């Protein structure tokens, strides 16, 4: 489950040093071009994009379609829950693949292509909606108001709990671990939704918060037409990304995602494994937890420091810069997800499509008719292509991040400081790129 594919430095068409230097130069040149030709914000201004026919919004808002998606989410959750509770605690149990592959990785490309579909697919959301209707109360209402100062801190903490379970917990690949995590997650989410309404889920559900950010990079948007009706439009994804609301905990949320992917590569580096082999001074779980937390703090602190170094900003404005620029880290996170987990999704994902037909892990059942399918190892058999794709995903994510950060900076900073005020952020992005590539190919 933790083997995220091949495609190492030896498989690159050119030496890794050339790749690293070239990526850094590409970022610097991108910034230089924007500094000369991009003097005003292009994404923060209201832009409707291309309005689609009214029937598209009617279909998307259809109670039948939305209800069907909710039912699908419940059916899948029930089927997988049955496998997790009653099936064998074996690597072939489909609950492991659904949790670590289809949910965590698969919903990223789905969110990019279709937008924010998780609130409809989420069994927790559906249960909360059903209970609210039985009690005849709006899902948005709770017994208390959600504290604004909390922001998305609960989601950041829950996301850290998830990545710790996936990357550090020695029992991560036990089905009982997945059952325990999902049970606690469901209980906390439902209690919080009861207290604060469904706004709690938007701010505390780690999957809803993360997939919601990813969906900002989709081309879909909801806008009002001239008659005030809601319409679906196609719009520049970076314009959608600029609509991310800066709030408490946003930097922490993206720092957890970026820090955990960096830790994932670091923890699998041969030199680190050899250096820590047989070490008895600190229990491995404690050591790895500290390293994971260290990577998260490194990302969050370094980004915040680079953001507040924007010259020309006043004291109050300076303190708000990290949250206002945090949306620019989303493309980097998405790029790393594809770079790290592409083979896991496309190849191990095929294996779990086969395992889904045998939820009790008997070796005989074929409930979904997938038992006789075979796995196609398209990327693993083409390591050079895979290594090149990894570099491309990382570089593209960082270039988009530089573009998004520059567009926001030219709006927030005085014109005289717009370029100079971004130099610290540019240096940080180059460091992220170089460090990310070195970690990615350090295995």
UniProtKB/TrEMBL annotation:
The chain crosses the membrane at residues 12-38, 68-87, 99-121, 146-165, 177-196, 250-271, 291-313, 325-346, 385-403, 423-441. Keywords: Membrane, Transmembrane, Transmembrane helix. This is Fenitrothion hydrolase. It comes from Nocardioides aestuarii. The lineage of its organism: Bacteria, Bacillati, Actinomycetota, Actinomycetes, Propionibacteriales.
